[in-house]
């Protein structure tokens, strides 16, 4: 009888917990970016958006949906594009002109958010990103600061070929004066984009087209309009003790899947979501490697002079004595992105590549006869 | 072949101040603020707009200040030439002597709330926006008293408080940036305009037309000013451009061709352009001007043009001489007074150079300052990262 009463008392509490967890919000990355833009535009009238199809078309990927209606054409600016625009077609019209205009507006004190349809097109405007934006604060000894955000999809999509698939993280992150951020989850997308817009320096914000539609749980804190993530801090997505895996953007998801597989084979992987490529959170990475003694870096971009190369060197410089195995690098293949589906698959890191590298780092290339 | 073809065009317009003599003599009594009317050397040539009048209102005070300011600029640039040859200035040094009327005339038509952005031939524009000589020479010599603390150099002068946004090394980049400034002015409802200056070399750049298209679409208060000194480095304009009528290159954007060696023509054109831009969006001004020096100090400037051409322009069209003649004919100043001003100006420049020489090189810690506005305490490294690291504030 007593047991029954106790059971009765306990049950409501459980259902209350269940009620909380079922009302935990989920949000797609697209919604996260859209809400971040909306909130920052609402909070600061100096923030405005510029890019191809961001206005009337609601954004090539619908990231800017609804913002034209809410804030009007003075603050959401469509830059010119040709008639042949189709839903999935990617165009690279007139990048240098409007990027330069955005930087000039930032010189005057406005806070532009310039969208590149993909970062492949940023190469046409890269002079303005590097020479006009990144270096101005230094060259003018602090007179001309450039509070601008350059955002858009980065890296490989699916089947778009060599000219539309490059990852630019390493190129931009090598440049002093720039900050380079790359979100993975919706929480990342919201917190990092808000931080980028509020930051007084030029920020390159590398999104991923294939992540836009993915849903992630978000807490009430994340949904609050004051939510912001710090720039320069990585996040430990999954704690572990045997091997550290660093990744950013879409590769974080792959690394987490790899960690699941590794766990079944008795390898506990710690997955670090870099979030910030420049400044790079060297202390979190090194602290993790000092704990696990093994490192696998993962990125989509080309391997030579890549993000992994910098991480590897940082660890060798700061934590050499702690390494029990050579650092492993997983990166995109050292070739222009092929179109054929099977070749494309080989040109981009897959989950099994990360698993294989982690096992090599743990001297477990050949599965052990008996596991615990 | 090339040289003889271009030579004759450049000596026009011949400055026929004699032709405006009648109106001058009738106003020979002049106190400082009495208004004087002068005629520009030639009428303006317009594209898709009605040109402004050739008659420009001025005053004795303005005439005197034009003379002094241009004499100062001329002296400053010549002094920079010597400093460069003495190896106190390093790297690039692009001198503006000959083009002073553009800087001075423009400044007379606008306020410090209007913005100016230009390329690398920026010393005189910086001065006209309120900069001082010590800052100029110190920056040229890489000392901490320079306006960019010695970290920019000749091509990276800025004076944001004076509405001067630099100072840009990449040819043509400043034009979209200038349209961005104009965008921001319109966005902020400032009722001010931006003058984005570029040369005949940059006039063929794609990004210029991209930016102009957007400026026209969005009615931005942007004035594109082509300082046509007829040579893009060593390439004469007729070899570089299919159409060197730069004031017409905006097509649907109106334009005006101006004698850039006549400070009053420049003043009138800029005043006209400002009014136009605030109401109707972008306009192009082509300033027909000339640089006495080569493209930079590494260019003697005589391999692609004749010395006769250079001295011819100096004799017929020099901007300072034009003002001198006006001052004399209006009996505002005497020969001696003007010579005294020139001596004064020379001394001012020499003093500024001495003062600038006293300024020290920037402190080594300046290597790491102003990388970011907000560095979040991240580390930056020197060549040997184990030897030299710094925390960015």
From TrEMBL, chain A:
One of its GO terms (molecular function) is pyruvate dehydrogenase (acetyl-transferring) activity. CDD domains: TPP_PYR_E1-PDHc-beta_like (cd07036). Residues 27-214 form the Transketolase-like pyrimidine-binding domain. Its main location: mitochondrion. It catalyses: N(6)-[(R)-lipoyl]-L-lysyl-[protein] + pyruvate + H(+) = N(6)-[(R)-S(8)-acetyldihydrolipoyl]-L-lysyl-[protein] + CO2. GO terms for cellular component: mitochondrial matrix. Keywords: Metal-binding, Mitochondrion, Oxidoreductase, Potassium, Pyruvate, Thiamine pyrophosphate, Transit peptide. Pfam families: Transket_pyr (PF02779), Transketolase_C (PF02780). It is found in: Mitochondrion matrix. The pyruvate dehydrogenase complex catalyzes the overall conversion of pyruvate to acetyl-CoA and CO(2). It contains multiple copies of three enzymatic components: pyruvate dehydrogenase (E1), dihydrolipoamide acetyltransferase (E2) and lipoamide dehydrogenase (E3). The pyruvate dehydrogenase complex catalyzes the overall conversion of pyruvate to acetyl-CoA and CO2. Tetramer of 2 alpha and 2 beta subunits. This is Pyruvate dehydrogenase E1 component subunit beta.
UniProtKB/TrEMBL annotation, chain B:
Its cofactor is thiamine diphosphate. One of its GO terms (molecular function) is pyruvate dehydrogenase (acetyl-transferring) activity. It comes from the Eukaryota. Its EC number is 1.2.4.1. CDD domains: TPP_E1_PDC_ADC_BCADC. SUPFAM superfamilies: Thiamin diphosphate-binding fold (THDP-binding) (SSF52518). InterPro entries: DH_E1 (IPR001017), PDH_E1_Alpha_Subunit (IPR050642), Pyrv_DH_E1_asu_subgrp-y (IPR017597), THDP-binding (IPR029061). Keywords: Oxidoreductase, Pyruvate, Thiamine pyrophosphate. It is an enzyme of class 1 (oxidoreductase). Tetramer of 2 alpha and 2 beta subunits. This is Pyruvate dehydrogenase E1 component subunit alpha. It comes from Arachis hypogaea.
């Amino acid at each position: 009888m007593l047991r029954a009463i106790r059971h009765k008392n306990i049950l409501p509490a459980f259902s209350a917990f269940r009620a909380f967890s079922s009302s935990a919000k989920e949000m797609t990355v697209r919604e996260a970016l859209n809400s971040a833009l909306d909130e920052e535009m609402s909070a600061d009238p100096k923030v405005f958006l510029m890019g191809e199809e961001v206005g009337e078309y609601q954004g090539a990927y619908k990231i800017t949906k609804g913002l034209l209606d809410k804030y009007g054409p003075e603050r959401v600016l469509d830059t010119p594009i040709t008639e042949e625009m189709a839903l999935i077609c990617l165009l690279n019209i007139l990048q240098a002109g409007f990027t330069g205009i955005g930087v000039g507006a930032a010189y005057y004190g406005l806070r532009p958010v310039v969208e590149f349809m993909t970062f492949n097109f940023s190469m046409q405007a890269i002079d303005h990103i590097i020479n006009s934006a990144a270096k101005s604060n230094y060259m003018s000894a602090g007179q001309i600061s450039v509070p601008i955000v350059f955002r858009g999809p980065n890296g490989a999509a699916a089947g778009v070929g060599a000219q539309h698939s490059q990852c630019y993280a390493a190129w931009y992150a090598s440049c002093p004066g720039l900050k380079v951020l790359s979100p993975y989850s919706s929480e990342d997308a919201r917190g990092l984009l808000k931080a980028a817009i509020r930051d007084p320096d030029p920020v390159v914000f590398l999104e991923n087209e294939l992540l836009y539609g993915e849903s992630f749980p978000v807490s009430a804190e994340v949904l609050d309009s004051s939510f912001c993530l710090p720039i320069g801090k990585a996040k430990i997505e999954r704690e572990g003790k045997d091997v550290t895996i660093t990744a950013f953007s879409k590769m974080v998801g792959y690394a987490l899947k790899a960690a699941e597989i590794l766990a079944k084979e008795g390898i506990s992987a710690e997955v670090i979501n870099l979030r910030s490529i420049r400044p790079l959170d060297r202390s979190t990475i090194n602290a993790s490697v000092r704990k696990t003694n093994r490192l696998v870096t993962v990125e989509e971009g080309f391997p030579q002079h890549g993000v992994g190369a910098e991480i590897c060197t940082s660890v060798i410089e700061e934590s050499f004595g702690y390494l029990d195995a050579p650092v492993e690098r997983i990166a995109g293949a050292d070739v222009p992105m092929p179109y054929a589906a099977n070749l494309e698959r080989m040109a981009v890191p897959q989950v099994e590549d990360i698993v294989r590298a982690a096992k090599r780092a743990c001297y477990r290339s050949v599965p052990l006869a008996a596991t615990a | 072949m090339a040289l003889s073809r271009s030579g004759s065009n450049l000596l026009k317009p011949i400055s026929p101040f004699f032709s405006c003599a009648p109106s001058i003599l009738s106003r020979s009594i002049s106190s400082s603020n009495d208004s004087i009317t002068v005629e520009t050397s030639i009428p303006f040539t317009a594209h898709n707009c009605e040109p402004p009048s050739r008659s420009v209102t001025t005053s004795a005070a303005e005439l005197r200040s034009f003379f002094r300011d241009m004499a100062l600029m001329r002296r400053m640039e010549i002094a920079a030439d010597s400093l460069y040859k003495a190896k106190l200035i390093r790297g690039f040094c692009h001198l503006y002597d000959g083009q002073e009327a553009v800087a001075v005339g423009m400044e007379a038509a606008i306020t410090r709330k209007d913005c100016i952005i230009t390329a690398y031939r920026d010393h005189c524009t910086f001065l006209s926006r309120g900069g001082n000589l010590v800052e100029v020479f110190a920056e040229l010599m890489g000392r901490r008293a320079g306006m960019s603390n010695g970290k920019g150099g000749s091509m990276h002068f800025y004076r944001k408080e004076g509405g001067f946004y630099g100072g840009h090394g990449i040819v043509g980049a400043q034009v979209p940036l200038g349209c961005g400034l104009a965008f921001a002015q319109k966005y902020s409802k400032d009722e001010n305009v931006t003058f984005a200056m570029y040369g005949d070399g940059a006039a063929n750049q794609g990004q210029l037309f991209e930016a102009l298209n957007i400026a026209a679409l969005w009615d931005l208060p942007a004035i594109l000013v082509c300082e046509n000194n007829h040579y893009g480095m060593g390439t004469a304009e007729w070899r570089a451009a299919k159409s060197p009528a730069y004031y017409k290159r905006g097509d649907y954007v109106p334009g005006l061709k101006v004698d850039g060696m006549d400070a009053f023509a420049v003043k009138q054109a800029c005043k006209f352009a400002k009014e136009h831009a605030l109401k109707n969006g972008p306009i192009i001004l082509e300033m027909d001007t000339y640089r006495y020096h080569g493209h930079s100090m590494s260019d003697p400037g005589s391999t692609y043009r004749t010395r006769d051409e250079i001295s011819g322009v100096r004799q017929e069209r020099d901007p300072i001489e034009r003002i001198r003649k006006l001052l004399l004919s209006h009996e505002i100043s005497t020969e001696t007074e003007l010579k005294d001003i020139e001596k004064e100006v020379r001394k001012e420049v020499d003093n500024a150079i001495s003062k600038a020489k006293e300024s020290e090189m920037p402190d080594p810690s300046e290597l790491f300052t102003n990388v970011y506005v907000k560095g979040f305490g991240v580390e930056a490294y020197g060549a040997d990262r184990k030897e030299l690291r710094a925390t960015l504030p």
